[in-house]
Amino acid sequence: MAGVSKKQVEAAILTLRRATFDDLSQSQQEEITKLGVELIQRDYWADVRHVAKELIERIKEGEIRDDEGLNEALDEAVDATQRVIYTFEAKLGMIATDNPDAWEELGFEHPTVEQMMFSAMRADVEAQLQAEDARDLFKEED
Question: How many domains does one find in the chain?
Fold first, then answer.
């Protein structure tokens, strides 16, 4: 994914201030839409990395000591995010997640978008924790 520069964002904002979206050419509409989606994705993945980082710190500090504790802390941390609490944020997160169908694994039959986001973000944070070998950080009990 190509990076969004400050200049691109400023140009898109300026263009939108001068005209309505319908006044723009098809290519301008597509470019602005792509920039918007990329910004949503960047924001979402920053949230995922932040939750994972906090959980890793808690493991290193000995607050989280085993898989059961990590799973409980993971559920609590994800459930407390704005991505899960607010419907609009949940909808945006569903655009960016790598796990849009994770709700099926958690047994939701007719999930709300917030439940879908909880499941998806939980799976994304879990993947981030796995990528950083977080479970290898549990301290040995004496």
Answer: 1
Q: How far apart are CA 115 and CA 100, in angstroms?
A: 11
Residue 25 lies in a domain: no
CB 93 within 8 A of CB 117: yes
Q: Could you tell me which residue, 86 or 8, shows the higher pLDDT?
A: 86
Q: What distance in Å separates the CA atoms of residue 122 and residue 70, rounded to the nearest whole number? A: 12
Residue 140: the pLDDT is 60
Determine contact, residues 92/121, Cβ cutoff 8 Å: no
Q: How far apart are CA 113 and CA 104, in angstroms?
A: 13
Q: CA 2: distance to chain centroid?
A: 18
Between CA 8 and CA 127 the distance in angstroms is 31
Asked if residue 2 is part of any domain, the answer here is: no
Domain interval for residue 115: 43-137
Of the chain, the percentage scoring pLDDT greater than 90 comes to 66
Lowest mean pLDDT across 28-32, 72-76, 85-89: 28-32
